[in-house]
Specification:
single chain, twelve-stranded mixed sheet, alpha+beta, 7 helices, three-stranded antiparallel sheet, FAD/NAD(P)-binding domain
Length: 328
């Protein structure tokens, strides 16, 4: 059986990987641009936002992603990451109480005293020892390489439940791909190109010449190590109805630097570059009314939930097709 996956970010790459494990002949259509999943350092952190919300699948998703990375590395793929833990500093007793009320019984965590490299002024710190960070682009590339899928560089321009029309990146004439299943995993740019109405959030990462902290720090913005230094990042722009070309307005740069200084001392750290991406909100996982399968709208939870939801979707898809190799 054949499948075509639209999008090569973490959702599309993970879907392709599990389709390959299920024995499906898979083609991935990837425009190769504007992928929010290519963030230099993404936190795999189950406790989200400034209120400490924990998704129902967060713990399973976190363990699933770490397990998948180990699996890829045993196959010889290099995926820079660290299951080093994440520190969530909190400003006051009220914030601690709010976070504490959301923590599930199965979450390994502790409350520790604020200490360097945190900046002064934090009242409490939530320690999440099983969280960490991963380099987004190498993970996506490893999943695609391990999937055995054919990757076509181009932009999907039209699709149904069994056919995808593609404009190749080399500007040759349109190509058509037939399939037993089509899975749309387009992110913010892909959804906008498809003419869909959705909620999009632009965020930026400043690349730093060194890591400010050996452990990721997160509240409002985040500081994290990478395999080549460190980053200061956050998703903070106002929601927009569609994707737009990446930019970092001066007021946003000031906001980001202020948030970074509130987390830790940035003295002596140099900014070496900038990465900006747009995230799509509004999770869709399963077949739509046209019979096209979808895994999109993961927002900031792409690396926390994406691989787990991809495995579930492929399982359901294979069952719907009577493809027993995919049923686990």
């Amino acid at each position: 059986m054949k499948a075509v996956v639209i999008g090569g970010g973490v959702a599309g790459a993970a879907v392709a990987y599990f389709l390959g494990q299920a024995g499906m002949e898979t083609t991935v259509i990837d425009a190769g641009t504007h992928a929010a999943s290519h963030v230099p350092s993404a936190l795999i952190n189950p406790v989200r936002g400034q209120s400490g919300q924990v998704d129902a699948d967060a713990l399973e998703g976190m363990h699933f992603t770490w397990g998948l990375i180990r699996e890829l590395e045993t196959q010889g793929h290099r995926v820079p990451h660290a299951r080093s833990g994440v520190l969530r500093p909190l400003p006051d007793d009220r914030s601690r109480a709010k976070f504490g009320s959301h923590l599930p019984a199965g979450l390994n965590h502790d409350w520790v005293r604020p200490a360097a490299p945190l900046a002064p002024g934090w009242a409490h710190v939530l320690w999440l020892p099983e969280a960490g960070w991963v380099a987004g682009k190498p993970l996506c590339r490893a999943l695609l390489a391990a999937s055995g899928a054919s990757v076509v560089a181009g932009r999907a321009t039209a699709w149904t439940s069994d056919r995808v029309t593609v404009q190749p990146a080399d500007q040759t004439g349109p190509a058509t791909f037939q399939a037993d299943a089509v899975i749309f995993c387009g992110g913010s740019a892909g959804s906008t190109w498809a003419g869909e109405t959705a909620t999009h959030r632009m965020g930026s990462v400043l690349k730093l010449d060194r890591a400010v902290s050996g452990l990721p720090l997160s509240f409002g913005a985040y500081l994290s190590p990478t395999d080549q230094g460190g980053v200061l990042g956050g998703t903070f722009e106002a929601p927009a109805p569609g994707w737009r070309p990446p930019e970092l307005p001066l007021k946003s740069l000031v906001w980001l630097l202020d948030k970074g200084e509130a987390l830790a001392n940035l003295g002596g750290v140099s900014v070496t570059g900038r990465w900006t991406g747009s995230r799509l909100s509004g999770l869709q996982a399963g077949p739509d009314e046209r019979g096209v399968w979808r895994l999109s709208g993961l927002g900031s939870k792409g690396f926390l939930l994406g691989p787990l939801l991809a495995a579930r979707l492929v399982h359901d898809l294979c069952q719907s097709l009577g493809h027993s190799a995919g049923v686990t």
